[in-house]
Amino acid sequence: LWLGVPIAMLLTGVLAWLLAGRALRPVRAISERTEQIGAGTLHERVPVPKSGDEVAGLARVMNDMLDRIQREDRRRRQFVADASHELRSPISSIQTQAEVAANEGGPASELAGGVLAESERLGALVDDLLSLARHDEALAPPGGEVDLDDIVLAEADRPRRVPIDTSRVSGGQVRGRSDELARVVTHLLDNAARHAESQVLVKLATDADGVTLEVHDDGPGIASEQRERIFERFVRLDEARERDGGGAGLGLAVVATVVRAAGGSVTVDESDELGGARFRFTLPPATS
User: Fold this and answer.
1) Which domain holds residue 216?
2) Does any domain span residue 288?
3) Which domain CATH number covers 107?
4) Could you tell me whether strands 173-176 and 200-207 are parallel, antiparallel, or unpaired per DSSP bridges?
5) Which of 13, 141, 217, 227 measures 20 to 30 Å from 49, CA to CA?
6) pTM higher than the cut 0.90
7) Are residues 94 and 224 in the same domain?
């Protein structure tokens, strides 16, 4: 008899543990699926158990909430795409008229030059929004073989506030859209030049891992805790980065979106060459 009590208690404990595990299994499945749902997977839903109890009710409520979030996200994305398309025509018209006024000279030419510069900046912002909208809706047209080194050299040749060293740029051919890859390179070079103290270094090489572009600067660098967040949309770091001196926080989001859509990866860390930031992306070679 004295052995029966501990054995009964042990069996009761094991039975309770098994029953609790079985009862909580749907909750665990809901939690795991919820953790997997992000901005790019709003179409997914949590599993609804067939028990018909409170846990099943909770799962249905969560799925209803996800339905509402997905609908609002679609409306937001559609609004951004529609607004961007509608803005392109008036911006082009403003740029044309400002160019004419600036070339005519006279007292209004300086004002026209300022209007032209700001309209070009606004046009670049609209192009970024359209690029992101196309990728959000998987509408970006397919690309072909692109000589990435030609794009890098052409973009690096544009005047910027600090010199850009391209002596370590070698050949590299990838698959993609030349206009989007040019935008990626432009954003990386503009970002590096904006924050560099005196120089920017660009490296391009092809190896077994793919075609890799690195952009180094000798600026203040980026804190490790900010290195993932910096590729999010409309993110601007706080360190003395005034809005007048930079963009709208979309450039690096475009970089990450285009590179990942092309099957590549993009990272940022500390430059071992210049001591500032090093942006690095790798794309599969065109022959892969």
Assistant:
1) 144-283
2) no
3) 1.10.287.130
4) unpaired
5) 13
6) no
7) no
